[in-house]
Write a structure and sequence with these properties.
Layout lengths: L2 E7 L6 H9 L6 E7 L6 H11 L4 E5 L6 H14 L4 E4 L11 H7 L5 E5 L6 E2 L5 H19 L11 E4 H6 L12 H11 L3 E6 L1 E2 L11 H18 L8 E3 L8
Parallel strand pairs: 1-2, 1-4, 2-3, 5-8, 6-9, 8-10
Antiparallel strand pairs: 4-7, 5-7
The chain binds guanosine-5'-triphosphate and magnesium ion.
């Protein structure tokens, strides 16, 4: 079984080597990494090339000529992964907010599901302790109330960026029709997963703040994402009640 982990990067020079090694050191058979770099001015692309050479054939790099958004980076990366015979495709950030240590846990359950979501908003899921209550509340409201209500999503963490997809799940979703180019990509994919009746499991994760480097998120990006939720609704409509099975909680015996 071949797994390709797609990591989009923009100025992640301090994180890329460590996250790549952490993934390969998990010891998961035939796990490969695809870095999608948007000509980062801090030299992330050069580090990615070095890793590709050092760790061949398990690391690959896609260089895009300019910063073109997280969504298109994932569409390009997923398309490449499908062309390279991935059975499972993982999406995650480079900044350690998504701990590689969860991947073996995802795999343990993948036989029963099509999509595994690393979720901050199911029992056992947690945001960084450094977050103020106000910041936590806003994030919870945006993910668990605002987006879910407008679109009728069942998934609790509608903007989760840490996911594992079964190949057949991505085949059901027409990636080329995904329009989102920024952070709203996560929401559009969650929507399409439910609309296509995929079996989704939300695995609780601890979401640690990025360790090093700068966030690409700012107020403008957040406002844009908030308005794009309405765009998704007007394009696709709210979800039908029977669209997907979403499991939120680990079995008591699994905890
Ligand atoms: N290729 C590419 N990668 C991007 C782009 N924007 C963000 N990224 C990457 O996407 C991932 C998530 O970005 P972050 O800046 O960590 O955003 P975030 O996790 O929502 O924000 P923080 O919580 O502040 O870290 C990181 O690996 C970034 O380097 C982009 O336009 N192109
Ligand atoms: Mg981050």
């Amino acid at each position: 079984m071949k797994t390709i982990v797609v990591i989009p990067t923009f100025n992640e020079a301090e994180n890329l080597r460590a996250i790549t090694l952490a993934l390969l050191e998990l010891g998961i058979l035939d796990l490969n990494v695809l870095v999608v770099d948007d000509d980062s001015p801090d030299g992330t692309g050069v580090i990615a090339d070095q890793l590709e050479q050092e760790l061949a054939p398990r690391v690959h790099v896609m260089h895009r000529p300019a910063k073109s958004g997280l969504g298109t980076a994932y569409v390009d990366g997923f398309t490449w992964a499908m062309q390279h015979e991935a059975d499972y495709v993982v999406q995650m950030d480079a900044d350690f907010s998504h701990s590689p240590a969860y991947l073996p846990e995802f795999f343990k359950r993948m036989d029963k599901y099509d999509v595994m979501v690393g979720s901050r908003y199911v029992p056992g899921g947690k945001l960084d302790e450094h977050w103020s209550f106000g910041r936590y509340l806003l994030s919870w409201w945006a993910n668990s109330v605002y987006v879910r209500m407008i679109l009728g999503l069942k998934v609790r963490d509608a903007t989760a960026g840490f996911k594992m997809w079964r190949r057949s799940a991505l085949e059901k979703i027409n990636l080329q029709s995904v329009r989102a180019n920024g952070y709203i990509f996560q929401v559009e994919m969650a929507y399409l997963a439910e609309q296509n009746g995929l079996r989704i499991f939300e695995y609780p994760i601890y979401f640690e703040d990025r360790r090093i480097g700068r966030s690409k998120m700012d107020m403008r990006v957040k406002w844009e994402a908030a308005s794009r939720v309405w765009e998704i609704r007007s394009r696709y409509g709210p979800l039908k009640k029977n669209s997907a099975i979403v499991s939120h909680q680990l079995e008591t015996s699994e905890k």
